[in-house]
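As a warm-up, study this chain.
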Amino acid sequence: MLESLQDEVEITTRTVEILLLIRNEEPVGLRHASTVADLPEHRVRTSFQMLEKEGLIQPTDDGAVTTDRTGPFLDTFDDEIEAVRASVERLGAGMAD
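Now compare it with the structure written out below.
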């Protein structure tokens, strides 16, 4: 059960790193992102698909670009992660009882 949670954390980390790359260098193509992030293209493609599904990037002829949803998402990301961390800590504290 925890292995799948760890997998999700790794995917989320990679995908947010890809989003930041796109925001900083847009437009960004799959191959360029793969090279810069030092990740296989299939992993970057998965992240691109996740980001597009969430409406955080959109494809163009020149590569992926961010959308008007990207800024608000990144603005609240740290708070969202902190809430998840607090939940995990409560879970761990409950196991100690």
